[in-house]
Design a protein that fits this description.
This protein is about 20% helix and about 40% strand. The protein has six helices and 13 strands. The strands form two sheets. An eleven-stranded antiparallel β-sheet has the order 8-7-6-5-4-3-13-12-11-10-9. A two-stranded antiparallel ribbon has the order 1-2. A hairpin with a 2-residue loop joins strand 3 and strand 4. It is globular. The termini are far apart.
Length: about 280
């Protein structure tokens, strides 16, 4: 794009201009002279690793999330919808919990505010006043809040891909009307934590230690600007209540880039300081 500065890449915590290497990696997406990203290999790995930076350039978007958990023969799906500001790492989601097993009780959606190292929840239930927020320090969560909140933070989901080790180009397709390239691969959470933004290094490092395995299979769909339109991760973790790992599939759909995303965090007086009952 004319007049556009070259995208910058983090390597070991520093930023370097992609330059000619970036053109090679993005060639299949932008037409700057290489088809390597369309066949897998190092070029495709570079494209996928840079997807988080493309979101920062986009600024913001709307998002839909889905978290599917399978345990003991039962499958549970938690859905969310909202907006995300990639430059300030702030998001707002309304998360809809599944029905009570009896099918009779439907809880109000939980409002979640996503911020660096913190998750704020309203309508949390379990004895929390309706007008109060619950604050969770995501640095204390063994899954880095990739699963706990019922929705994976969209930018954290993108930064998982910084740990991509291998990628296969599946083909061209469409997601919600946008033309995309479908890549399938595996990311390593330990590697992702080393090269992620400062805000996500701790959370991804915690996930690398807390999950049953640090290797995360994924499918990602990138548009012509290298932005994530859809990403699906498959996590495996032990929840402490059973010996067998729980399989979790987290899907994030991003659309309407540039949409307003004015997210304001609660004031200290609006945060619940009491004990939260177990549900």
């Amino acid at each position: 794009m004319a007049g556009r500065e070259p995208r910058r890449r983090r390597t070991g915590g520093s930023a370097v201009a992609l330059g000619a290497a970036g053109c090679l990696a993005l060639g299949a997406l932008t037409g700057c002279g290489s088809s390597g990203a369309a066949t897998g290999g190092p070029a495709a790995v570079a494209v996928v690793r840079e997807a988080a930076d493309a979101l920062v350039e986009a600024g913001s978007s709307k998002a839909r999330t889905s978290l599917e958990m399978a345990t003991g023969g039962t499958r549970v799906t938690i859905r969310g919808e909202g907006v995300y500001d990639y430059r300030n790492r702030l998001g707002r989601l309304k998360v809809l919990l599944p029905q009570d097993p009896s099918g009779e009780t439907v809880r109000r959606p939980i409002t979640e505010l996503l911020a660096p190292r913190a998750l704020f929840m309203k309508n949390r239930g379990a004895g929390v006043p309706a007008d109060k927020w619950v604050r969770v320090d995501t640095g204390t969560l063994t899954d880095g809040n990739l699963v706990t909140g019922g929705a994976t933070d969209p930018f954290t989901a993108a930064e998982v891909l910084r740990g991509t080790r291998s990628v296969t180009f599946v083909g061209r397709t469409e997601v919600a009307g946008a033309k995309v390239r479908h890549y399938r691969g595996t990311a390593d959470l330990e590697e992702a934590s080393r090269v992620a933004s400062e805000a996500n290094r701790g959370t991804l490092g915690a996930a690398a230690k807390g999950f049953a395995t640090a290797r995360v299979p994924f499918d990602v769909y990138l548009d012509d600007q290298g932005r994530i339109r859809k990403v699906r991760h498959r996590f495996s973790f032990v929840n402490g209540r059973q010996a067998e790992p729980v399989a979790v599939a987290s899907t994030t759909l991003l659309y309407d880039f540039g949409a307003p995303a004015d997210v304001r965090l609660p004031k200290a007086g609006d945060i619940y300081a009491g004990r939260i009952a177990e549900e």
